[in-house]
Specification:
Number of helices: 2
Radius of gyration: 23 Å
Helix content: under 10%
Distance between the termini: 32 Å
CATH architecture of the largest domain: 5 Propeller
Number of domains: 2
Structural class: mainly beta
CATH topology of the largest domain: Tachylectin-2, Chain A
CATH class of the largest domain: Mainly Beta
Number of strands: 38
């Protein structure tokens, strides 16, 4: 498994809005795929050589022929739900649900290289629901999913090349009795087939349950200790753990990846970076899994980056809500050219190029060349905070539901950059939020903050949904250009 620490001090292996992790191993390499919801491109794919340090190698759904998602509030937290990534017979397989195309069934794509390109999708029309899984038993492929009709976990034999069911779906398990049994994954260990599921809803009641059978199609015997993994009703700073997938390591040990949230601020707590990916070591007792302690790198993952956009292709970290960023964002020697932006008084994003916020404290800045432009941190089109440059004026603006307001403004003559940061808030104050957001301008005389806002208004607890903060730039009313973008993880205070 490599050099790792095991303990209770959980830190995300992949911080930021990267939820619903699915994992597979090929030789000594591990691969992760996660949900992406309304953002394009979809399904980020990561690689690691040691299960500890992860690098994004691409996105499985990166072409309009592969992915159709919607912008604005109607598309928020829709799109791509929990994927499963597997490797079989020299090919990578990925199956997921696009809830904007729900009635077409589950979506399957394949690739020789997990970094892409991936094939155009085929849809399994006989499997209506969410959270699909694929597994092979003696060369026969089986699918499982959260069934829309009966509410449990259904399974069937499938021809994955043709995306066709070859048997009538049957109910594998309805769960342990907790709400929202979903996220199934099947795997084999020894003489048993195991079915692991998420239960309790994907917030503070979340947990992981498991059942086993001598046959892949059941009947499945539930574990008496279900949910065998949950942080509900504990003081752990990582809550809502669940939606797990297990993997056997080269040395025969086992690990489990799962999602969790890091809420801050006073009651009820506010998480802002979405559901993040964590991992734990798994031991086995009487052929049942036992959580043996958090798996984490001995050093915090590096998340800071600088992009001058000279590469002819956008880095795979860049995403856009509801639209293909290649349609409005163009790289080159002069930086990043943006078109298709929203009007200066609009609140709905029309061409925002963004990255996931990945830290509790951070600073993001853009060096502006020309045009009217905004730098924004957002949950959705009704919950965002940003700095805008419009016709020689700078203003800090916030949108909270139906309220849109200007929090500060100034003359922008000589301004060369715009900045947003998330800074520490006093967590002992009984009214404190998770952090404080501030935004301003930069030039030859340094930086000037023009407006601040309580960070709870750009959190999941206020906005709802399943995503996390995204920081992005957008042209306002006409074309604009930036020379560079910087994201810096700030040290804790």
């Amino acid at each position: 498994m490599g050099e790792f620490a095991v303990g209770r001090d959980e830190r995300p292996l992949v911080p930021g809005f990267y939820p619903d992790p699915s994992i597979c191993r090929v030789g000594n390499d591990y691969f992760l795929a996660m949900s992406s919801f309304e953002y394009f491109p979809g399904v980020p794919v990561f690689r690691s050589e040691d299960l500890l340090e992860w690098n994004q190698i691409g996105n499985a759904l990166e072409r309009p022929s592969q992915l159709k998602v919607r912008s604005d509030l109607d598309g928020a937290s829709m799109g791509i739900y929990a994927p499963t990534i597997r490797h079989h017979d020299g090919r990578f397989w990925l199956i997921t649900t696009n809830v904007d195309l729900y009635d077409q069934g589950q979506l399957i794509v394949t690739a020789d290289d997990p970094g892409g390109p991936w094939s155009d999708p085929k849809f399994v029309s006989g499997a209506i629901g969410i959270d699909p899984d694929l597994v092979w038993d003696d060369g026969v492929c089986h699918i499982a999913w959260k069934d829309k009709v009966n509410g449990g976990i259904s399974g069937a034999i499938i021809d994955p090349d043709r995306a066709m069911l070859l048997s009538r779906p049957t109910t594998l398990w309805r769960g342990s009795g907790l709400a929202h049994t979903e996220g199934p994954h099947r795997f084999r260990r020894g003489g048993y087939w195991y079915l692991v599921v998420a239960e309790g809803g994907t917030h503070t009641g979340h947990g992981v349950s498991i059942a086993r059978s001598r046959r892949i199609d059941g009947p499945y015997e539930p574990f008496s200790a279900n949910p065998f993994f949950s942080h509900r009703s504990t003081t752990s700073p990582v809550q809502a753990v669940g939606h797990a997938d297990l993997v056997e390591c080269p040395d025969g040990s086992w690990a489990m990846v799962y999602l969790g949230i890091r809420a801050r601020g006073q009651f009820p707590g506010f998480h802002v970076n979405g559901r993040e990916t964590f991992a734990t070591r798994i031991d086995w007792e009487d052929d049942w899994p036992v959580v043996a302690g958090a798996v984490q790198a001995r050093r915090t993952p590096s998340t800071s980056f600088f992009d001058d956009f000279v590469d002819p292709r956008l880095n795979p970290r860049w995403i856009s809500p509801g639209v293909d960023p290649n349609g409005f964002a163009h790289t080159g020697s002069g930086g990043l050219a943006l078109s298709l932006g929203r009007g200066p008084e609009e609140t709905r994003s029309r061409g925002l190029l963004g990255v996931r916020a990945r830290d509790e404290r951070w600073t993001a800045s853009a060096e502006v060349v020309r045009g009217n432009i905004a730098l924004t941190v957002r949950m959705d089109d009704a919950h965002w905070f940003g700095i805008e440059l419009i016709d020689g004026r700078a203003r800090v603006r916030a949108c909270i539901g139906q309220l849109s307001t200007v929090l500060g403004e100034a003359d922008a003559v000589g301004v060369t950059g715009i900045v947003i940061r998330a800074v520490s808030e006093d967590q002992t104050d009984h009214r404190s939020g998770p952090d404080r957001l501030e935004a301003g301008i930069a030039g030859a005389k340094g930086e000037t903050i023009l407006g601040t806002m309580d960070g709870r208004y750009v959190s999941t607890e206020v906005a709802g949904g399943f995503t996390g903060r995204v920081i992005g730039v957008e042209a306002l009313g006409g074309p604009a250009r930036i020379r560079s973008f910087s994201y810096v993880a700030d040290a804790p205070t």
